[in-house]
# Entry
Amino acid sequence: MIVRVFKWGAFMKRKRVVIIGAGGAGLTAAIEASLAGADVFVVTKTSAGLGSCTAYSAGIFTLPVCGITSEEHFRRTMDVGKGVNDPLLVNILSEKSEESLRRLSDLGVAVRFTKGTGSTRDTAPNDLMGGGGFAAQLVEIALRNGVRFIEWTVVTSLEITDGKVSGVSSADWRTGKIFTLQADAVIIATGGGGQIYSRSDNPARMTGDGYSLAKRSGLDLIDMEFVQFYPIGWNEPGLPQWMADTGLVDYLRITDEAGDEFFKKAINEWGYKNGAEANLFARDRCSVLMAQKERTGRVMAHLEDVPADKWEDSGLRYSLTVDYRFFDEFRRPVRVSPIQHYMSGGIRIDGGCRTGISGLYACGEATGGVDGANRIGGNALSNIVTFGMIAGRNAAGDGLWETRLNNEPERYNPVASSGAGEEPSKLRSELQKAVWENLGPIRSEKSIRIAQDKARDISERQMRIESPTEMLLALEMRGLIDTVAAVAEGALRRKASLGTHYIEQ
# Structure
């Protein structure tokens, strides 16, 4: 096995920052750290900017802008989060999100501001990747400012020296080579772990790597039981497994097995004006409702309700989320089901994105505290921009602080290639199926423990690795298993239903 050590050569005189993850949070942090004078390297499992939730997002930022005050944004975020949110972090989000996005706009990101929102959808390459243009622009700005990307690489562990981060250990999954990147500061910006579920709209590489790195280094993970499910996701052969905006109910009927238009009735009874409003503030209640209805039979979205001349309607196309041309052959009832969308919990951070280890920062979906028990639609992108900038700026300029931990991180040696064992893809599918069935929108103490047991079982089974892709899947398995464990542990501790955590008694 070949081991390489990056010593940074001519760049030794400047502060060295390694960022794990090249989604919106990691890219924003990279830009800010570079502008602050640091030498910045971004490690990503794919090509920079691709394979991230940012690229596949709607490209909409919820902001206190154009008539919405920061106080109102703070109140709504805390209310939707059921008060579990960290008020300090929410206040930072409310006070700084507009400023942060306008700073990116000044750097060249095309943003359109309207009441309460910012949008980069005008730059989207297609309807499927609403945030794709945003991610591409961030990559371009990062490169222009000297950020270097190390692609096709998995970070396997944090290097800790004398209680301070000193770098990361990594593996190039295409070649199997392992190497160490030395650093003065490290930022975890790996996104969430939606791939623990068989039904998720997250890209395939969202496997909870950051949660695993933090957990195995002794850091706190908070609010992991709060997993946001989108109420309406396509569940029809021939259609992509993807979410549809809850505003779809404003354009067509959504019915249960008996033909009852239950969804619209429910959101009206709850006091919401339309599906779009319910999408912002009640994804938790809507997802549980959908999951309960599915127990009695299939739930259908009636695409045949849409007249031919309405398919070009911009509101309808936005609500479909995926490119409307997918539906040319589906002007009929189409099955829909809840789908995992976002992880509200994660690494505990302070207002400067610092963790419990000196020199280690975290930002974006890898962190907890901003969303609490449920997330307002659009706050995810506002979060990554706001806290990505803070993390990047502080990683480039902070001095040392006292590490609040005594233990050293667990070392992880990449799985050696072997002709024996089971295919990683089959183990992954087995885990995802069990987690969806037992740790999904509706849970019980019994079902949570079943998911726990399945994760333990799979963690003990040997994997067969005969190709680069299998190496990647094997390296990702640890993140998946650690994420399942963290979600299950949080769910068992919280005995009562709250927000996106629904316990069936």
About this structure: The chain has three domains: 3-225+344-397, 230-340, 424-493. Residues 230-340 form a domain with the Flavocytochrome C3; Chain A, domain 1 fold (CATH 3.90.700.10). The chain has 14 helices and 18 strands. The two ends are 52 Å apart (CA to CA).
